[in-house]
Amino acid sequence: MSTHSAPAPDPTAGAAVKAADRAHVFHSWSAQGQIDPPAIAGAEGSYFWDYDGNRFLDFSSQLVNTNIGHQHPKVVAAIQEQAARMCTLAPGFAVDVRSEAARLIAQRTPGDLDKIFFTNGGAEAVENAVRMARVHTGRPKVLSAYRSYHGATNAAINLTGDPRRWASDSASAGVVHFWAPFLYRSPFHAETEEQERDRALRHLADTITFEGPQTIAAIILETVPGTAGIMPPPPGYLAGVREICDQYGIVLVLDEVMAGFGRTGRWFARDHWDVTPDLLTFAKGVNSGYVPIGGVAISAEIAATFDQRPYPGGLTYSGHPLACASVVATLTAMEDEGIVDNAATIGEQVIGPGLREIAERHPSVGEVRGLGVFWAVELVRNPETREPLVPYNASGPANQPMVDFGAAVKRGGLWPSVVMNRTHVVPPCTISAAEAKDGLAILDEALAVADAHVVG
After folding, report:
1. In this predicted structure, what is the pLDDT of residue 5?
2. Is residue 295 pLDDT above 80, yes or no?
3. In what order do the strands lie in the sheet with 414-415?
4. Distance CA 436, CA 440 (A)
5. 189: which residues sit within 8 A by CB, 6+ positions away?
6. What percent of the chain has pLDDT over 70?
């Protein structure tokens, strides 16, 4: 698919791109005067490169979304063909490519989640899933986990459990947070996965009791939390949450925005545990972000709520034809080329074993965990106490060990996903075994920087 060959360096062009960026572009999640965005000249397959001739193996999949890699020719061609035929049409019309995108998604969703509401991305998918749950149940509250991320729009950021919520937390958004299972840093003093599961379920049930089950519209969970640490739930946990929701008439929303469409080695992460939600949110991997799109897969019962009652929501670009064309091409290519199976194989045979070997060599590695091409490496200052390499939500000098580690990785030609005290190994689902091994070798070498900070 790719020769991975970058054009000749052009530093002058790169400088112009960067100057225009600094003059006019306002960047996400950043103090604008403290950032230095790299100017990128191109990308293909598992790689991207800058104007100075530096090429990086993309172990971040950008924002964990380029599941089919950069510039997949079949998807690029589909977008071009659709643009020549029909660039845009309002959501109120039936359009062939929109219907086909919805059909292909529904073909892979579990149970009777056969109706698809399209959005512009993951955060809006979460916004609309919550709205559907509240209207369907007539209840105001939504429960979500600490150690979660659901997006940056109003409801989504209030549902989020990480520090990015704090500046926007209104304390009046009808959101209640609870602790989901995470054995390595167990809030329940558990010693086994079974204890963690049972105590987490008891904690959730107690939270519901004290909040009032009749006030709770939905529980939303990332099937496998992503940005918060890639923590696969213990066996039986999701089934237990499903039972609790059924007991109280609470809508179960699984957020598959990051974990879906091959990332964990299955079409959806829920496929590992065979739990069917009432609503399922998606974005990112559904078309690898080639054109913005996301959505909600809706159960028959919730869809029926709006058979005669108008749904109170919509978006100008819902089901945008260019985006839907990229979805159709992406899902077709993933099926034809065995991309989901490749993600599973790379995880089982290369990344998982490779990270476990790396952990044995580096005292800074407290734990590795993951599925498919969705892994986290937990870095610690003390492997006995599990003290994180940097404090929670560290910045400035306190975060320097992770800054130094990230710089070492980039010098090796790998672009990492560095989050708090972790590095996430999240390459495209199309990555080859040789590429994955190259990336792990660079990580292995760079971890010497983290090892230098280990004490005890």
Report:
1. 62
2. yes
3. 40-44, 47-50, 55-58, 414-415
4. 6
5. none
6. 99
Q: Which residue has the tokens 């099926």?
A: 335
Over residues 236-263, the pLDDT tens digits come to 999 999 999 999 999 999 999 999 999 9
Distance (Å) of CA 203 to CA 178, 208, 250, 303: 8, 9, 16, 31
Q: Could you identify the residue written with the tokens 């090796």?
A: 412
Q: Fill in the DSSP letter of residue 452.
A: T
Q: For the packed helices 352-361 and 433-451, what is the interaxial angle rounded to 10 degrees?
A: 20
Specify the residue for token string 């900070």: 453
In angstroms, the CA 95 to CA 99 distance is 6
Residue with tokens 């590095």: 423
Q: Which of 373, 82, 393, 148 has its CA nearest to residue 281?
A: 148
Residue 161 token pair: 């459990």
Structure tokens at 143: 């429960």
Distance CA 312, CA 278 (A): 19
pTM over 0.85: yes
DSSP track, 136-203: HHT--EEEEESS----SSHHHHHH--SGGGGGG--S-SSEEEEPPP-GGG-TT--SSHHHHHHHHHHH
